Please model this.
Amino acid sequence: MLNKLRLERWTPAFFLAPAIILLIVFRYIPIVLGFEEALYTNSLSLAGARKFVGLNNFIAVFEDPVVWGSFKTTMVFSLVVNPLQVGLALLLAELINQRVPGIAVFRAIYLVPVAISMNVTAIAWGLALDPNYGLINGIIRTLGLPRQPFLQHPSQALWSIIGIISWIGVPYWSLFFLAGLQGISSDVLESARVDGAGSLRTFISIKLPLLRRIIAFVLVSDTVVNFTLFAPIYLITRGGPQLSTHLVMYEAYRRGLVYGDIGIASAIISVLLIVVVAFVAVEFIVLRPRH
Amino acid sequence: MFLRKPLRLFGLSLLILLLATVTVTGQDAVELSWITDLPGAEEVAARFTEYNPNITVRVDKVSFREVFQQNQIRLGSGSSEPDIVSVDAPVVASYGFRGWLLPLDDAIPAEQIDGWVDALHTSSIYNGQLLAPPIWNSAQVMYYNAALMEAAGITPPASDERWTWEQVTEAAQALASDADADGVNDVWGLQFGQYNRIYQLQPIPESLPTAVLGDDGLTVEGIIDSDDWVKAFTWFSDLHNTINVSPQGGISSGELFRNSQLGIYVDGGWMINQFINNPLDFDWGVAPHPYWDGGEVTVPGDSWHLGVNPNSEHTEEAAAFVAFASSPEAGRIWFDVWGVWPAHEEMLAEFAEDPANAEFPNLAFVVAAGEAPYVTPRPLTVGYLEYEEILSDAFEDIRNGADVAETLGQAAGRIEREMDKYRE
Model:
């Protein structure tokens, strides 16, 4: 009897162990190593050797206007892209949740961008937005409107990047909302309708509150994904023009892998990690379930 | 019982495998690793193995940008791989300064070293030590579309006639046209192969002439933001923004040239082979690299170099491979595979006198090889990686119409901050 009890107590641990071990090995240990690496600098005269510099790398990060600029750009970018993607994803989910003939076809069409890798998407959109030979400018010209520089101008580049990643992000996150919407009992919706609630009222007063947990999950995941966005910047704009798309991950990449300064790169990533955790904590508090 | 046989078989195979390993080790079989993007690398490695059957070279092919990243991350961490290090000429100093390259003065035959073209020999040395021998030679030349030139009423330069940038600008304006008036030129006048890299654009200020780096190898303030640089890059900006003869955006210059949408195209001599093997459907020609009227002739060129990782477990074998890859014999392979000519003075002379090269298109190789005396090495600085990357940002912004003086001033500030760590 006692044995059985003891066994039962350990069963959850047994099932959780693989996931926890993987998390520790592939997430927590690298995070600790990253923080540690940020306290060192590569020796500039002996391959593989390194020198302890305390918090100097962090001080350097805060003093460098380019790094600071990349944090500011990333902040503006996140404050726009996350609410935008979550809002549009909700709207899209509500639209493709309608019961009309042939809706499955529409759902498939909207989900196509999700099936294409970010790299291919980035390169394809980079070509489509070319100022001279891009498809989009071709369409704009056909409509008799002036050509747009898109990725070539500091006032439009970041917005173009937001558009490109939302092309994937919106349908992807809408999948989660669609699943949530389909999980709402038809009895609830039916009684709302009987009580005279219109679609908008039902959406705001019934569906949104019931989707609260999913919204929290999507917002947090989207925040993390977008704070660490790298591929389209690396592939299309390389941080330009005039550093307008110079996001933190790209700056960290440059420091670490182009200039070979792993210490500074680790310090940048460590600061970014703290910022992301702070953001996510606020989101969790605001969206915590009300019991 | 019935399990025994398979078990015994398994044991036997294990034994054979073990013995085989021992035999191979007995012959000192060595596998060297090498990260590169170069065409011809496999062929050079294979020939080396023919002479040294116990040494194989594992060629890891990656993109141009990744060659730097993958080498730097490994070397920086003190890894024993790669054994053979691909070193672009301007980063020899940077890698040497960090202790990433083994001195090879005793590993390369003296007559081979003496045979290299001077500029290439200079690039391979840091702090008085030979760190990274050159494997071939290159130079930038000016290609032109003869049909487009004729249509625009321009007489193309002779194969030994060096145009000034003033002549090039005038021709480019005559070549550029937008017949369908859609706001995008059908034919562009002029474009560079690597339109945002210092490698390609260095002669624009340098030919004025003006310096591209301070004498201490670190200072850029007062140099890359000088009036001369502003003048040089105002011309570059005008090409893209006011006189509109060069395209903005990421469209490949080589493709534009191939499609008869580009009249004058400045790029490396390695394009000649491509134009011969995959022929262009119009008459084309090659002329020496342009320069400023009254200025100096300076031509981008140089080579990839090879070095040996000091932490490699096979430094001797790796050094032997580097010696072979920079030898005249390997020089022949590099030329045959992708048309870059050898780093050896003597071979260049043979090359120019070879009757097979007297006529176009092979004459194009002679034009390019003839640029060797004008090739100016890239600025020798331990901070080249930072210098190049930040200048690329600046050149891209200037192409897109940013204020030239302001952009160069900001770039100077950014590079100075990065150089500080080398000053301590």
